[in-house]
């Protein structure tokens, strides 16, 4: 009996917590689809006209999703290798907060405002990064961002200095009479201009000020392009390095995008 219980827990753990098998991938995809559908219910419930005309339907759907996520949380807690570690982990807390507000609103109506915490279910969508179809690309992006963080920091520091200098210059040229009442306000104008946001709450009035604004606008194009180029170069380098970590094709289905650390084929679930 104990052996059968352990086998059940192991099978549940493989299905719920891993995605190296076809069943695990289907479970993750189904879970994400249900999370998105439950968010649609939450969003519709926040619209007064929809809530007034479909109150009973939204109520039933909300409880269906809540019961499903409650069973899913209990199953995760049951089959987790370390229950305390899972319960206190980031996703463990989010999984719990995704269902608790509905129960609290049922037993304590005065806490109904907390039901909007259900939107935290959206955070659970980040489980998509566990899906093998996306894990490799997510890993490349994370590695590229990490490798290029110093370059991006230096570039942003340079951009900040330019905005400070140009903002100070506009403060001198335009002055308080044209809305540039202080250097911080002028720097704020420089940042919104360089990033091409342009709220329009502060605008230059003098010819020299308009010339400076034109230069800032043109510089904004390059400002947006440089970080993208830095990250793209790092992604290309990381992708090239990653090819050396790949193993031969799966003997079962022939998939050739596997890594050395994979224990199962990402496409067919065959044990490697």
How would you describe this structure to a colleague?
With 272 residues, the protein is mostly helical. It has eleven helices and no strands. The protein has helices spanning 2-17, 22-45, 48-53, 55-79, 83-87, 90-97, 100-107, 132-147, 149-173, 183-194, 207-242. α1 crosses α2, α8 packs across α11 and α9 (149-173) runs antiparallel to α11 (207-242). The protein starts with a helix and ends in a 30-residue tail after the last helix.
Summarize the SSE layout with pairings.
Elements: H1 2-17, H2 22-45, H3 48-53, H4 55-79, H5 83-87, H6 90-97, H7 100-107, H8 132-147, H9 149-173, H10 183-194, H11 207-242
Radius of gyration: 27 Å
* CATH-defined superfamily of the largest domain: Voltage-gated potassium channels. Chain C
Helix content: 55-70%
CATH architecture annotation of the largest domain: Up-down Bundle
Q: Give the number of helices.
A: 11
Low-confidence stretches: none
The CATH topology annotation of the largest domain reads as Four Helix Bundle (Hemerythrin (Met), subunit A)
The fraction of residues assigned to DSSP E strands is under 5%
How far apart the termini lie comes to: 30 Å
SSE string, helix = H, strand = E?
A: HHHHHHHHHHH
